[in-house]
Design a protein that fits this description.
Strand order of the largest sheet: 4-5-8-9
Structural class: mainly beta
CATH class: Mainly Beta
CATH topology: Trefoil (Acidic Fibroblast Growth Factor, subunit A)
Number of domains: 1
Strand content: 35-45%
Number of helices: 2
Distance between the termini: 15 Å
Oligomer: single chain
Length: 148
């Protein structure tokens, strides 16, 4: 997953941030929606969760709007439903730009994953400005184990 300007993503602690270059980019698998049972039937085909390819059951979720990577198995049982909501996103193709994807929070309608000017990713209410649309648009590529 790369931002429209071509920047990859990586981590700073548990925070999801812009990668300094493609060499340090991490890969996320678009996995099954963790909030499947609470998302409307109409949205289920487009609902995904972003899992770290190197660690099963570690998902990107928003916490106080910022995106973080947390393990599902570390969540207390009473908080699991919230965790699953916070790590589920509705995929929109061609929403802001042709061929690009936008990821809307499943539990905050109208809030999309957006790269902030400081390089941190968070969810932010939709705004139809060029800066917003650039920062909320992503290119998604098929996962490959090759180093090319």
């Amino acid at each position: 997953m790369f931002s429209k300007p071509g920047r990859g993503l990586t981590f700073s602690g548990s925070n999801v941030i812009q990668s300094p270059d493609t060499l340090y980019s991490v890969t996320f698998l678009l996995s099954g929606c963790r909030a499947w049972d609470t998302v409307s039937e109409a949205l289920r085909p487009r609902c995904v969760s972003l899992m770290d390819v190197t660690r099963d059951d570690w998902y990107v979720k928003h916490y106080v709007y910022y995106l973080h990577l947390f393990a599902e198995y570390e969540q207390p049982p009473q908080d699991l439903w919230r965790y699953r909501q916070d790590c589920s996103f509705i995929v929109h193709r061609d929403l802001f730009y042709p061929g690009c994807y936008a990821f809307e929070s499943a539990n905050f309608h109208g809030h999309y994953i957006r790269m902030r000017d400081d390089g941190y990713l968070w969810i932010e209410p939709e705004a139809y400005t060029g800066a917003y649309m650039d920062a909320a648009s992503y290119n998604v590529y098929e996962y490959s184990t090759s180093r090319e």
